[in-house]
Design brief:
This protein is an alpha+beta fold. Helices cover 46% and strands 13% of the residues.
């Protein structure tokens, strides 16, 4: 594996973890927004990792050289809405309360979102460390290769 692939793997990991942090922050920011009486409102989101496209075969991933390569099929993720029922809170005086006095809020658990943010930040830091290690190894290889004077 050359150093560019290790940089690519770390970059993909960092973009995935950044998306997780962004989505968790968006969920937290909208946790107390009210759903309208017609049911519209904020829907919590999740980042879903996709390991490979279903049409990608193992021989396509191996390639003509016989070496395993990480292509676009191994780098995808999507952001999808979570289909959970709304969190109902009894607030009879609220303008969006239903006939029984309940207000619908998005089904966002603040503790879960905070844990997601913390674990994504740690994983992001691990990817940065892996990228720095790959960079140092590449620099060391250049130093060793250029030291034949």
């Amino acid at each position: 594996m050359d150093y560019r692939q290790s940089f690519g793997i770390s970059a993909v990991g960092m973009s995935f973890e950044r998306a997780r942090v962004d989505v968790a922050a968006m969920n937290l920011a909208n946790a107390n927004t009210v759903r309208e009486t017609d049911g519209t409102g904020y829907q919590p989101l999740r980042v879903i990792a996709r390991s490979a496209a279903p049409s990608t075969s193992f021989s396509d991933m191996i390639g003509e050289t016989g070496l395993f390569t990480i292509g676009n099929a191994g780098r995808s993720f999507s952001i999808e809405g979570v289909d959970k029922p709304a969190r109902m809170v009894h607030e009879p005086g609220h303008p969006y309360a239903d006939a029984k006095g309940f207000v619908a809020y998005p089904a966002v658990d603040s503790a879960t979102e905070m844990v997601t943010m913390m674990s994504a930040m740690r994983a992001y830091e691990a990817n940065v460390a892996a990228m720095n290690t790959a960079r140092n190894l590449a620099l060391k290889a250049l130093e060793i290769g250029g030291g034949s004077n």
